[in-house]
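Here is the promised in-class demo. Please do not try to memorize the tokens; focus on the logic of going from shape to residues.
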């Protein structure tokens, strides 16, 4: 399934900031879950909501704060799913 271009760019940037050992694991589970999320929405593209949801459901909670920090750095909007609103 195709990715929305900006979403792919943000995902790639986020992955590049994750330690190599964890990167391999994440690259196995997050894209697959993101595609499942898009299919459940009956979407033709994997979008940001699919990727953020995949990170939140597939990455162990021990890495939650790192995930949120990296999502903020690359501009992946997790706020609607995590309840973390700035302002």
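The designed amino acids, position by position:
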């Amino acid at each position: 399934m195709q990715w929305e271009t900006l979403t792919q760019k943000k995902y790639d940037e986020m992955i590049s900031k994750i330690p190599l050992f964890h990167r391999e694991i994440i690259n196995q589970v997050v894209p697959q879950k993101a595609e499942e999320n898009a299919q459940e929405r009956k979407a033709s593209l994997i979008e940001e909501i699919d990727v953020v949801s995949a990170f939140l459901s597939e990455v162990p909670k021990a890495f939650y704060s790192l995930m949120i920090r990296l999502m903020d750095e690359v501009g992946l909007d997790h706020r609607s799913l995590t309840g973390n609103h700035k302002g």
